[in-house]
Specification:
Distance between the termini: 24 Å
Number of strands: 8
Helix content: 25-40%
Shape: globular
Largest sheet: 6 strands, parallel
Structural class: alpha/beta
Radius of gyration: 15 Å
Number of helices: 7
Strand content: 15-25%
Amino acid sequence: MHDHKPRLAWALTGSGHYLKESLEIALELPHVDLYLSKAAAEVVHMYAHSMKELRARFRVFRDSTASAAPVGLFYYGHYHTVVIAPATSNTVAKCVCGISDSLVTNIFAQAGKCRIHSIVFACDTEPVVTTEAPKEWVTLYPRKIDLDNTEKLKSFENVTVVMRIEELRQAVDSRMKTLGIKA
């Protein structure tokens, strides 16, 4: 399956950290496919999104095959950019260590191997993070290893790591402008 216009692959992980705002950015963009980890498929419901609603706007790929079969689309110029937003500390750690055992970590790995630019909105970026839980705002204290992994990911070739929702919007807008794509 090859589109004439390369698409953007937007991956959700099991985090609610600015999930609503991340999806709002994705909704503003043309030609977006949504990739959901198993945890993301659970979390989107907790934050009042339905699969029906997501499928009405995006092509949705869920983590349901052992081989992460949809990654084959990366080999044929199907995507110009990968966005992982929001990215849990688990996803960031796996990306840093080269572990690709889920749909999201697999598309990150394949993007790197195919030299497709990735933008990662890491959740654990500061010693104290205030984030929205399903029913209220909570304060979290990321571990040193979580902060270290975010820093390590910043050194990856062809990867932009953003730490705030405003930076995500700017990075996506900049990438689209570089590619000559109007949102």
